Amino acid sequence: MDLRMVLGVICGAVAFAGAFNIMFQIYHMTVIDATARGLKHPKLWGIFTMSGNNSGNLLMYLIGRRKYPIVNMSESGTREINRRKKAAGAGLVFLAVGVIGIICTTLL
Questions:
Q1: What ranges do the domains of the chain cover?
Q2: Distance of alpha carbon 18 from alpha carbon 97, whole angstroms
């Protein structure tokens, strides 16, 4: 096996892990937010926002939730959302590093 191929597979795995982490964090943040706003079926909203190719569903949720003010967001919910934002940022770094690595191994 060629070294470039091995590095490409490793970078692909890193990019995949980052993308999966971002989707996982968006799901949980949406569930916490939908619960705090009193929306029915918050887990369904979480699945709805993380599906779709171009994140149009997330945009639809963010626009539609403006009608529902936050009713009961606890301090622990706020801390959990902030923690998940940081974890999503780390996932974004993994995704970027993986994609840059794939591009570099392809061009070399």
A1: 20-100
A2: 9
Q: Where are the alpha helices (DSSP H) in the chain?
A: 3-36, 42-50, 56-64, 75-107
pLDDT band at 53 (very low <50, low <70, confident <90, very high): confident
Q: What's the gap between Cα 50 and its chain centre? A: 7
| Integer angstrom CA distances of residue 94 from 22, 42, 60 | 10, 28, 26
Amino acid at 16: F
- Over residues 68-74, the mean pLDDT reads 89
Can you tell me the distance from the alpha carbon of 23 to that of 29, in angstroms, rounded to the nearest whole number?
A: 10
